[in-house]
Amino acid sequence: AGFQLTQAKLADMTVELGKGMLLAIHLGRLKDEGKLDHRQVSLGKLNSTREAIKIARECRTILGAAGITLEYPLMRHANNLESVLTYEGTSEVHQLIIGQAVTGESAYR
Question: How many separate domains does the chain show?
Answer without folding.
Answer: 1
